[in-house]
Design goal:
9 helices, globular, five-stranded parallel sheet, binds magnesium ion, Rossmann fold, alpha/beta, binds BIS(adenosine)-5'-pentaphosphate
Length: 189
């Protein structure tokens, strides 16, 4: 199996690039943000829990997120592998994912991190906020808080995967196609 983590701050292009990469490598794309939004739209109990955190730009608690992710992985067990987008976002989530994949006789192959300057992130998210209807894209302070949460809780995961020799950084500035090419090269190595 090829199990990739597509990593990066809010607006780095994880979702955009996952769509391309999943076709190229024939993988299942799991975006925890998309799954939460689907649950919010359908007004499930999980959606109601997640919404309070997401609208403020805070992380949803680990226990809720890990349980959801594991059940999504179990739904797609016979594929070639996964692209995890937006998960793990804390060390506790990374540890849980390692343990869980080990029970399936598989593991993370690589973390590929998209590197994008902060100003560009804010621009992309505010631009999308004009049409996306995502409450967390509408307000400069919420965007700031998402980036702060990333720096505080999520960025340390780079070290976690570096220590396992699984970390690769890719320049996330440029056109979508240029970045896809860079990602494919990094994943193939
Ligand atoms: P999530 O949905 O994961 O949002 P995010 O990480 O904040 O990032 P985005 O999805 O907004 O950005 P992206 O990197 O996917 O970029 P995209 O391709 O969309 O999470 C939302 C919330 O859910 C979290 O804040 C948290 O509350 C909760 N959550 C999710 N996972 C969780 C977890 N594991 N634990 C706890 N809580 C969790 O691109 C962004 C924009 O830029 C788009 O408009 C796109 O068209 C544009 N764009 C993309 N590439 C380029 C380019 N090269 N040039 C110009 N524009 C570009
Ligand atoms: Mg996304």
């Amino acid at each position: 199996m090829l199990n990739l983590i597509l990593f990066g701050p809010p607006g780095a292009g994880k979702g955009t690039q996952s769509d391309k990469i999943k076709e190229h490598f024939d993988l299942v794309h799991l975006s925890t943000g998309d799954i939460f939004r689907y649950n919010i739209k359908n007004n499930t109990e999980l959606g109601q829990t997640a919404k309070g955190y997401m609208d403020k730009g805070e992380l949803v608690p680990d226990a809720v997120t890990i349980k959801m992710l594991e059940s999504e992985v179990d739904k797609h067990r016979d594929g070639n592998g996964f692209i995890f987008d937006g998960f793990p976002r804390t060390v506790a989530q990374a540890e849980a994912l390692d343990k869980f994949l080990a029970t399936k006789q598989t593991e993370i192959s690589k973390m590929v991190a998209l590197e994008v300057e902060d100003e560009e992130l804010k621009q992309r998210l505010l631009e999308r906020g004009k049409t996306s209807g995502r409450p967390d894209d509408q307000d400069k302070n919420i965007i700031k808080n998402r980036i702060a949460e990333y720096n505080r809780k999520t960025a340390p995961l780079k070290t976690y995967y570096k220590n396992q020799n699984k970390f690769t950084a890719v320049d996330g500035m440029g056109t979508i196609d240029e970045i896809t090419e860079r990602l494919i090269t990094a994943i193939d190595q």
